[in-house]
Amino acid sequence: MPEKLNTEAFLDAAMHFPILDVRSPGEFERAHIPGAISFPIFDNEERAQVGTTYKQIGKDEAIELGLAIVGPKLAHWVKAVKKIAIDNTVLVHCWRGGMRSGSMTWLFETTGLKVKILVGGYKAYRNYVVSRFDEKIPFVVLGGKTGSGKTDILLEMQKRGTQVIDLEGVAHHRGSAFGHLGLAPQPSSEQFENEVVAQLRQMNYQKPIWIEDESRHIGQVFMPLGLYSQLRAAPLLFLDIDAQYRLPYLVEVYAHYPKEALAQAIGKIKKRLGGDFYKKALEALDEDDFYQVAAITLNYYDKAYMHGLHKRSKEQIHVLVINTLDTHLQTDAVSAHPICQQSI
Predict the structure, then answer these.
(1) Torsion angle in degrees (nearest 10) through CA of 289, 290, 295, 299
(2) How far apart are CA 29 and CA 114, in angstroms?
(3) Which of 239, 236, 216 lies closest to 140, judged by CA?
(4) Were 294 and a residue from 170, 230, 250, 255 both cysteine, which residue would form a disulfide, CB within 3.0 to 4.6 Å?
């Protein structure tokens, strides 16, 4: 008999054994438990056929169709899973812990494998993920206007032993209209939540967890309210860095991308820039004046960021004036600030 585990125990076991997600490829692609391996009983088309048969004809007929589909695959599955298993053990889940995971478990145990299954399936896991954002998380937020190098600072802090969650790294987006350039496609909002919780599970809530100040949208990813509310309520260290230092940094980061891509990004904020500034930005881009392009767009983003900052209570905000974009010097300054010392 398989060992039945709740979500917390299942995720703990996943630190030692592989997770086989037996849902369809489409379900897996939309979102999955981080680290899981897609091991579908049915491909997307087969799943649709079985589902249609179940609804239009009946359960027995759907089961018969399912057996006809999977029969030729059984030997291949056994060989494949024995290569994946660790200590002859695998973890298995489907959507609700029903027929698909039950069928796979029967097959694997019949061939001598040890199986642990997730009670309630992926649906139970998702309930667990959502609930984690209702817990009090000891966030400290690193803020600053666009081009302040916040992500680089956080990653350097992480190297030095500080607990950090890089939301932009998880979302594959830097947050602005230009934020997708050069990065992998974004995950779904659901997968973003799964990845964040996977990181939170590794952290000590008795110590601060540093995170970057973000709007609720990071590109196409939508941050869950529980996470966003805690981010907005946490103490914030605002890096006050003059534009003269930030502009060269932005030019260095973005100027090497194709002009067509930069023009499309500028078009996304056309209304917010205003017609005249939008036109000037495109003219500067056409003339390879990337510094001017950055200056025009930065003017908009600075105003937008300060508008959001002023919605926070003054007691939350701690200001650190920095006149450098050297990541190591910036990180030294952040680490020496009282907010960092208080949180040790």
Answers:
(1) 120
(2) 27
(3) 236
(4) 250
Instruction: Return the sign of the alpha-carbon dihedral for residues 188, 193, 194, 195.
Output: positive
**Which residue stretches of 212-315 are H helix?**
225-233, 243-254, 259-268, 270-273, 275-286, 290-309
Phi, psi of 259 (to 5 degrees): -60, -35
Specify the CATH number of the domain 3-130: 3.40.250.10
340 is catalytic: no
Q: Give the domain 136-342 fold.
A: Rossmann fold (3.40.50)
pLDDT in tens, 95-133: 997 778 888 898 889 889 999 999 999 999 999 999 999
> What φ, ψ does residue 307 adopt, rounded to 5°?
-60, -45
Sign for the CA dihedral angle at 195, 199, 202, 203 comes to: negative
pLDDT (tens digit per residue) in 201-223: 999 999 999 999 999 999 999 99
Catalytic residue among 41, 94, 273, 340: 94
Buried b (16+ CB within 10 A) or exposed e, 302-312: eebbeeebeeb
Instruction: Transcribe 72-112 into DSSP letters.
Output: GGHHHHHHHHHHH-BTTEEEEE-SSSSHHHHHHHHHHHHTT
> How does pLDDT run across 32-82, given as a tens digit for each residue?
999 999 998 776 777 677 668 777 776 766 666 666 666 557 778 888 999
CA distance 201 to 11: 9
pTM of the model: 0.91
In this structure, are strands 114-118 and 3-5 parallel, antiparallel, or unpaired?
Answer: parallel
Structure tokens at 213: 């100040």
